[in-house]
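thought: fold this chain, then report.
action: predict
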Amino acid sequence: MSPADSRHLADALPPASEILADVERAFAEDIGPGDATADLLDPHATATAVLTCREYAVLCGSPWFDACFRKLDPAVRIEWLASDGDRVAPGTAICRLAGKARALVTAERSALNFLQLLSATATVTARYADAIAGTRTRVLDTRKTLPGLRRAQKYAVRCGGGTNHRIGLFDAMMLKENHIIAAGGIPAAVRAARSIHPELPLIVEVESLDELAQAISAGADRALLDNFSPEMLVEAVALAAGRIPLEVSGNVEIDTIRAIAETGVDFISSGALTKHVRAIDLSLRLDVKS
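observation:
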């Protein structure tokens, strides 16, 4: 990974306090008052472990993985053989650990849960990003994330080569059909939004070329083209003529995204990056020392 890529990911990584809070929630539901089975182990025993990836994947989640083990054993030694954002092949050893046996056993499931989920998100994103490689279009995530893990999954999207949309309802305004109807049309809705939150980016969802023309004239920062046909997308790009970025949403699949990108739109957003994921197959093998 290049230094520029590393900085790109560092910018997206949640603060350490947020990662630790994620881990504490995971431990609260998994460990509760204590790991009853781990009581079978000698409290002074140590162990080593090797983490292997069993399928093709884009690695993501190492800060959460580390935090799980360090929460229970601050002295644990963790050696990463791959970095977040790296593409790894089946059978690749990606991490080695050494520390207290009880801590390694107890933290294992929560650590793997984070790593499997976030690597899955990064891997799906990489497939979508690869599908539009060579075009000017960037793939965006959405707010369709697991509750409580939005920033983690959005970091994973960045690891997979995607771009983040708004984080939530607070850092951008998106005028959808009901907002526009309630305000009395696109021009009125844009004026009202600018008067209330002039500091925020303003995205307007449009369902026709006429509505796109209205959004451009009203001064929107981006237009979201909802369920446009391929022919309409070509016309929309010509109509916008670079005056406003265009985002496509709706009916975006891995086998259709390339054709959409080739129309010349700026962004394609897909909930599949964060919700159509299957945990990556990882294996952590321990060797306990008495």
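thought: worth noting. Residues 101-131 form the longest helix (31 residues).
final: tokens above.
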